[in-house]
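Lay summary. Proteins are chains of building blocks that fold into shapes, and those shapes determine what they do. In this project we predict the shape from the chain. Here is one chain we studied, written as its sequence of building blocks.
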Amino acid sequence: MSKVLVIGGSAAGMMAAYAAGMCGHEVTLLEQNEKLGKKIYITGKGR
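And here is the predicted shape, written in a compact code that computers can read:
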């Protein structure tokens, strides 16, 4: 098992973290915003 650091909680970052976790890696996900995927939320006008 490797330790994986994913920087950025965008859709791609969350998917990378998920995929690494499913492969058995220990994952740390860093995001500067208070919520993950905040930009995705904004593009959908909060829906």
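What the prediction tells us: Residues 20 and 27 are 7 Å apart (CA to CA).
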